[in-house]
Amino acid sequence: NGSELTEIRLISNDGRTASGYFSDPDTMINAIRPYVNDFSTYFVFNKLNPDVYGRPQRDKIMLRPKNTSTDGDILCRDAVFLDIDSVRASGVNATEEQLNAAKKKANEVYRFLKDQGFYTPIVVCSGSGVHLYLKCALLANEENDKLIKRFTLAMDMLFSDETVKVDSVTHNRCRLSRVPGYYNRKGSNADAERPQRLCSFVKIPDEWRVNDKDYFKKVADMYPEEVRPTRENNYSVEKFDLDSFIEKHNIPVTHKVTVADGTRYHLEHCLFNSEHRGRDAILFRHNNGAIAYFCYHNSCSNNDWRKVRLMYEPDAYSRSAYVPQPRFG
Predict the structure, then answer these.
(1) What pLDDT shows up at residue 100?
(2) CA-CA distance, 93 to 183, in Å (whole number)?
(3) Which residues is 102 bridged to in the sheet?
(4) DSSP for 205-249, written as a single string
(5) Burial class of residue 78 in the structure, from the number of CB atoms within 10 Å of its CB (0-12 exposed, 13-18 middle, 19+ buried)
(6) What mean pLDDT is predicted for residues 154-179?
(7) Which residues pair with 47 in a beta bridge?
(8) String of b and e for 19-57 (b: at least 16 CB within 10 Å)?
(9) Mean pLDDT of the 228-242 span
(10) How many Å separate Cα 284 from the centre of its chain?
(11) What is the pTM of this model?
């Protein structure tokens, strides 16, 4: 949209930063052109407060700017951004094998989102991974900040593995993303196995439709809540021994994956429908002790960790399982 204001942020491998605010695409392209060989090109994709257009870098690129966009400058969220990236050393580009792994994972994420009811996202190849833009219309407030953070954490929980991660830190309002049509200048271009690649569009839907907030909430609610003292856990936050539970009840775990916020246990089959096999079902233990269960089939969408626990230990949450603690004084 030619009338939309955005900030362009340029970042070089040696740490230099430049910035400019633009509302006209031609002005923006001409201003960026002298920098594209040495800088990676990013933009702010959420709606900016028009007041920032009054900053010194209006309609031009300024090196070492005093002010750039912050979360407080965002009026509303236009999109939720998912960054699906290969796991590799920092400051380098992906190999072809790593990029292909990210693309394969992006296809899994794409299919999952469509199964959950989301409209078709914009898909971009960043050069070393894949970006998905889910259109939304959310106010810039604390409630929605928490929602989108839990949404990205849930996506990380469900899909990150040893070779590809779904980045869980892309939830802030003023998130930067690569501009399609420009090269990803991260890393050296002298390494033929890790070249600097063009950031480019893969898929643009005919109509980029707004996703209802409830769809983001549905996925966010898959992420386990922090463990809090309740009568059900004898007012304790002591971590549940999931490994012992798995061993005791012969739950068929094929392998474990450690991700940023915890450990994912891949199951041989869904615990509620043995026909759901392969990598269809997981248990997830958060670092704070919270536990989640998930099967990727829609027919199992209502099955959670509480139901798993009750399947094997029917009195786990009953009053009889509660042992009153002595009172003093």
Answers:
(1) 97
(2) 11
(3) none
(4) -SS-PPPPHHHHHHHHTTSPPPP---GGGTT--PPP-HHHHHHHT
(5) middle
(6) 93
(7) 76
(8) bbbbbeeeebeebbeebbeebbbbbbbbbbeeebeebeb
(9) 59
(10) 16
(11) 0.87
